Amino acid sequence: KSAAPTALRGRIVTFRADPFATDPSSALLIEEDGLILMENGQINAVGSYDRLRHRLSPDTTLVSYGKALISAGFIDTHVHYPQLPVIASWGEQLPQWLERYVFPAEAAFADPQLARDVARRFLRELMRAGTTTACAYCTVHPQSVDAFFTESERLGTRMIAGKVLMDRNAPAELRDTAASGHAESSALIARWHGRGRQLYAVTPRFAITSTPEQLEAAGDLLRTHDGVYLQTHLAENMEEIATVRRLFPERSSYLDVYDHAGLLGPRSVFGHAIHMTETDFCRCHETDSALAHCPTSNLFLGSGLFRVFDALDRRRPVRVGLGTDIGAGTSLSHLRTMGEAYKVAQLTGRSLHPAQALWLATAGAARSLSLDTQIGTIAPGMEADLCVLDPCATPLLRYRTERCASIEELLFVLMTLGDERCVKATWVAGRLIHENAGDTSSER
Ligand code: GUN
Ligand code: ZN
């Protein structure tokens, strides 16, 4: 039960500072033999086992993870749960991939039973990946949102999600109208936003599939509902960008289409943002809009290379978090996503430090979602969402991590070789929600 006091012992890895703003190594906060005390879904105390052991009472359940790393749960800032059935679909770039695979898959969500089944499977997979919060797209059908939040509420996870708005350039069965999309979104906000840990995101798919009237309606929803999010796609693919220019000849850039409709702000999250000008980055900084970096998706669809160090430029930093972007992304594992973010940075001539990669998957992602006072780090008062990473999950990992001289090196090996197999346990609001006994522990 979540109310009972629970304590986790292990190697704690979290952050004391932003590793993009300071020396990445010194931004890490590491407790080699650490203890985390949790009660009522929150973290009460964090520190060395020796310093905190006197606070263990007879009714505290103590779980010891030995040499495994305990991190804040991963945060996926951009993902489409209805696309789980079409992950790993061959042969297309963005516009044709949407037509050929995604729209037919999303049309199936008219069936509420299917929506429930996929929402359940998706959230179970997230827990297996150690991801405890996601900013998720549903489909155009309101029941796809009900299915997602219902399952999230059952698990006790903090999730952000919303109904896709599309009133043009999509199959008829997937279109709403500016008016119906507004009304359905309002009803979903009333039902779900701020209910327990659930939060709503107004979700126009992208500029191509919404009329100017629908984008205006999305702006109205943001202005009239406190604390709701805005999520959409931005500057992902060259053909997409050319179409946006044709559809909105009077706007100065793709970002300006959204800006004009009043969609920029501190709770706005733009997916991809690969092909950005300096003016675009400056405008995101001014409005405090955030970007979701989705490396596995950008490589899979051949969309391009996100310039993370440009986005985070100290002169005008833009908040960034990692996203898997399933089904264009190829893994729900943020360890895999961190590994691919490293490779994308390599292709732009920069080396992403493992502390920076972990930041983008946890504390930085929380900051990009304006949730950094609740999730993303391990500290007193934070919500008790944690994942436990086993550095010996496979024979090769064990062999390689035995040779690591530091936690940083260990993190780098985990993000290069690791995946769901490394997630030994996932805790949500102080409750054990997923446990992986492992099947290789006896192998050498
Ligand atoms: N742009 C508009 N819709 C989508 C989508 O579903 N996935 C990706 N990757 N890009 C999009
Ligand atoms: Zn997406």
Q: What can you see in these coordinates?
A:
The chain is of the alpha/beta class. It has two domains: 6-72 and 376-435, Roll (Urease, subunit C, domain 1); 74-332, Alpha-Beta Barrel (TIM Barrel), CATH 3.20.20. It is built from 17 helices and 16 strands. The protein has helices at 24-27, 49-52, 94-107, 112-128, 142-155, 178-192, 212-224, 238-247, 254-260, 278-287, 295-300, 308-311, 334-347, 354-361, 363-368, 395-401, 407-417, and strands spanning 6-15, 28-39, 42-48, 61-72, 74-80, 131-137, 159-162, 164-165, 198-204, 229-234, 268-272, 290-293, 320-322, 386-389, 423-428, 431-435. Strand 15 (423-428) and strand 16 form a beta hairpin. The longest helix has 17 residues, at 112-128. Zinc ion is lined by residues 78, 80, 233, 271, 325.
